[in-house]
Amino acid sequence: MATISYEKDADRSLIASRKVAVIGYGSQGHAHALNLQDSGVDVRVGLREGSSSVQKAEAAGLRVVSIDQAAAEADLVMLLLPDTEQRSVYEAAIAAHLEGGDALFFAHGFNIHFEQISPPEGVDVGMVAPKGPGHLVRRAYTEGGGVPALVAVAQDATGKARALAVSYAAAIGATQAGVLDTTFSEETETDLFGEQVVLCGGITALVQAGFETLVEAGYQPESAYFECLHELKLIVDLMYEGGINSMRYSVSDTAEYGDLTRGPRIVDDRVRAQMREILAEIRDGRFAEEWIAESRGGRQRFHELRERGRRHQIEQVGQELRAMMPWIAAGRQRPEDASGG
Question: Does residue 335 have a pLDDT over 80?
Fold first, then answer.
């Protein structure tokens, strides 16, 4: 069974004794910095010169300095920039300031697992990865709760790296919900697999293909949108609240029979073979190499694919229908809120 820690297991004095630098003020960065500050931790936000996030962070009452100064002042650096930007920033502004006994933390294992960043000996290397977007991490904290998180240790130089990670997790509210021990490799590989095969890649491809199938058969695009995208939230919420069996209990018998008999025809042995191949590409580093090369090369293919998705008919139909339902957009995160700073 997995090891799960709660508030009673956290020694908050460990994080309270640290000077923390949160590098980046995007989705996770703003939540970590604000929650840490509200927990009484000595925190500063490190941002690049000219970052659009400077004013937002300062307006929230946070102290903002350059990344270089933040790393120089701190003895715990939490690196929350996008994966493809972390290595260059680490080498330019952080590495030179790390000393024995310091800690370098991440919220995703990508750069350590795929050896893009190699911290020096004598430095604790850990992970605190909330299992939810930053705005939820912040909201749950302000309401007295928290979002579950994963903790991992890649290098335990002081013998206290895990305890420090749990202490950090407590300061951002995660121990209120539960903190699960994992490893950098497990977190990285399962996270990428989930994103690509189910949560993002799998669902979006399935939704678009279902929409296209109905429209090509002559049904109204609006009807296709409601059936293939809009109602997805209902089903996901039911699974989130009680699991797959609970969802099946809540829908009609007709829907459940269709689920049980037709679902396996969609996700068949060929699809499972593709899942295994995608997992292999993640585990042996092929995906990481591809994504790093794409980013260093200017992201032309990435931008082309993104634009193609934006032009898909389901996006145009959905935009018109959602405009009729303004309650849907209430409190939603805007794309610009996810920038890394």
Answer: no
Per-residue H/E/C for the chain = CCCEECHHHCCHHHHHCCEEEEECCCHHHHHHHHHHHHCCCEEEEEECCCCCCHHHHHHCCCCEEEHHHHHHHCCEEEECCCHHHHHHHHHHHHHHHCCCCCEEEECCCHHHHCCCCCCCCCCEEEEEEECCCHHHHHHHHHCCCCCCEEEEEEECCCCCHHHHHHHHHHHCCHHHCCEEECCHHHHHHHHHHHHHHHHCHHHHHHHHHHHHHHHHCCCCHHHHHHHHHHCHHHHHHHHHHHHHHHHHHHCCHHHHHHHHHHHHHHCCHHHHHHHHHHHHHHHCCHHHHHHHHHHHCCCHHHHHHHHHHHCCHHHHHHHHHHHCCHHHHCCCCCHHHHCCC
Q: Report the pLDDT value the prediction gives residue 340, as an integer from 0 to 100.
A: 53
Question: Which has the higher per-residue pLDDT, 338 or 259?
Answer: 259
* Per-residue pLDDT tens over the stretch 229-286: 999 999 999 999 999 999 999 999 999 999 999 999 999 999 999 999 999 999 999 9
Q: Which of 32, 108, 113, 135 is catalytic?
A: 108
Is 108 a known active-site residue? yes
For strands 179-181 and 4-5, give the pairing: antiparallel
Residue reference for tokens 């293939």: 228
Predicted confidence (pLDDT) at residue 336 exceeds the cutoff of 80: no
Radius of gyration of the chain (CA): 22
Q: Which two tokens stand for residue 222?
A: 């609006």
